[in-house]
Amino acid sequence: MKILVCISHVPDTTSKINFIEGDTKFDSNGVQFVINPYDEFALTRAMWFKEKQGATVTVINVGNAVTEPTLRKALAIGADDAIRVNAEATDGFFVAKQLAEVVKNGDYDIILAGKESIDYNGGMVPSMLAAILDYNFVNACVGLDVEDNSATIQREIDGGKKTLTANLPLIIGGQKGLVEEKDLRIPNMRGIMMARKKPLTVVEAVDFEATTVSASFEKPVQKGACKMVDADNLDELISLLHNEAKVI
Amino acid sequence: MSVLVYAESSEGKFKKVALEATSYGKKVAEQLGTNLVVLTINVDDTSALNAYGTEKIISVQNDALQNLNSKIVADIINQVAKKENSEVIIIDSSTNGISLAPMVAVYLNAGYASNVMAAPSNTNPFTVKRKAFSSKAFNHTEIKTQVKVIGLAKNSFGLVVNETNATTEKFSPSLLESSIAVASIDKTVGKVTISDADIVVSGGRGLKGPENWGMVEELAEVLGAATACSKPVSDLGWRPHSEHVGQTGKPVSSNLYIALGISGAIQHLAGVNSSKVKVVVNTDAEAPFFKAADYGVVGDAFEVVPKLIEKLKKFKSSNA
Fold first, then answer.
1. pLDDT at position B229
2. What is the pLDDT of residues A43-93, one digit of tens each?
3. Domain shared by B203 and B126, yes or no
4. Domain containing B287: what range?
């Protein structure tokens, strides 16, 4: 079984979000970048398939050289090799096109990605990849098992869960539930040493004209101070919610 | 030319997000000087759409579409968009909408902007405002293609009443093949889900144990709200993962979010930032959540919540 895990390189959740060059660019100065948390659930599930079912695991990122430490971290967690498509990830459609080229030539059985990245929260790439390649696709995946050429998948739906079956190859947009929080791995020293020697292949991007362009950024207006209500005066809270906030 | 909205339904009824997408579609159609077309699948009574500016309804009825497969629905939207010569296609941010909108964009070779929260600020270049960085910032995105796909963020544009008399046209699309089979569906009925709820009541580790969730559920019932929880609570197994709201759980964009015994870790706040009004009840006056909240009560949830339930019951009966 050959698995490809798509890795997004994103600012850590606790990062300060600021912009430079007239609010047109994200200020990465002093920002810690990490594996996108949703992709980390996908990668961790891939490790399970590697250890229990002998899968080989390749990780991939579309980005310039600054994203390589994030790919090395994925290798330290246990992926076998890495691919970097050398281009700035301008929008989801562009990234999906680049991934599609690699998948077409790679003969992968399962392509795992997080259902969204925590920077632009676009949630575009796995669905677009599936549409470009016409592969089977399940989004919001909270459980995945594979036997021979067939997968059983749990998908979260509004208000419950669906169980689906599909043949490989298959594209998954994953989230927590694929593995639990406690299953996530921190790379150990041996993993980090080994990761340095694992292959990281850089491939050039294919041409694809941008369909969207980021024009500028804006930060939310600073909200007013929290209005404190005395615990013995809950009538006031109800009155504020009814008359001022108009939410009840 | 036209603007096309896909109005999602569940058991033959439109979801609120579908009516919000319709309201938004009307606004965009006005900006472009064109008509609003709304696509529905397996809805017998489409009259609700008349209140939000719909000019034409394309009605698809097909029993094979009971279990909406993203690929098949995306292709139906693609067929209708081509037939109606649609320049802008609007899809809501339900779990299904989020999966199928990017596929529609690929089929139509269209630029796609997700998490859009306001009407276009400009139609040439076509520019929309989107949420980014878990609502810690907004991005103004220009869509460069002739055909554009917009994913509308939940509870962002609201419902705008605009009475019309829509014409209805039946349409029989061709259906793509899919080899994904549904083995079973496990869905709670009669309970408000976090994604549909106007109000969400959420409990944290401060509630001490799963046996204390009775009051959370009662408060939710009085308010017609959904119940949710913080990450530690779902990790400890006190509540199901489907209730976890926050960075790696579900995002909440309700009108009102009530947090009981939740300190407000940054990962939690990232998931609830989009809620319009936040109320926090916590014993610790220094809890970070108070900085992000609109209304705060410093107090023990075990004393505050039962009192609040009683007072809300009285309020509800006198305002009924």
1. 97
2. 999 999 999 999 999 999 999 999 999 999 999 999 999 999 999 999 999
3. no
4. 199-318
- B69 lies in the same domain as B111: yes
Domains of chain A: 2-219 (3.40.50.620)
Per the structure, how many domains does chain B have? 2
Q: Residue B20: which CATH number?
A: 3.40.50.620
**Searching chain B, which residue's CA lies closest to the CA of residue A242?**
B315
Residues of B in contact with A228 (CB under 8 A): 290, 295-298
Per-10-residue mean pLDDT for chain B, 320 residues long?
95 92 98 98 95 97 86 97 98 92 98 97 97 93 98 95 96 93 86 88 97 97 96 94 90 95 95 94 97 96 97 92
Q: Residue B220 sits in a domain of what CATH number?
A: 3.40.50.1220
Annotate chain B with DSSP letters as a single string.
-EEEEE--EETTEE-HHHHHHHHHHHHHHHHHT-EEEEEEES-S--GGGGGBT--EEEEE--GGGSS--HHHHHHHHHHHHHHTTEEEEEEE-SHHHHHHHHHHHHHTT-EEEEEE-SS-SEETTEEEEEEETTTTEEEEEEE-SSSEEEEEPTTSS----B----EEEE----------EEEEEEE--SS--TTT-SEEEEE-GGG-SGGGTHHHHHHHHHHTPEEEE-HHHHHTTSS-GGGBBSTTSB----SEEEEES----HHHHHHHTT-SEEEEEES-TT-THHHH-SEEEES-HHHHHHHHHHHHHHHHHH--
Say whether both B149 and B23 belong to one domain: yes
Which of A6, A19, A120 should be substituted to probe chain B, the one whose Cβ sees the most B Cβ atoms within 10 Å?
Answer: A120
Closest by Cβ to B311, choosing from A219, A223, A234: A234
Examine the fold and report which residue of B152, B170, B188 is the final residue of a domain before the chain moves on. Answer: B170
Inter-chain CB proximity B95 and A157 less than 8 Å: yes
Contact list in B for residue A14 (CB cut-off 8 A) is 266
In this structure, is residue B261 part of a structural domain?
A: yes
Does the interface predicted TM-score (ipTM) exceed 0.90? yes
Give the tens place of pLDDT for each residue, A121-140. Answer: 899 999 999 999 999 999 99
- pTM for this entry: 0.94
Do B165 and B208 reside in the same domain of the chain? no
Which pLDDT value is given to residue B187? 84
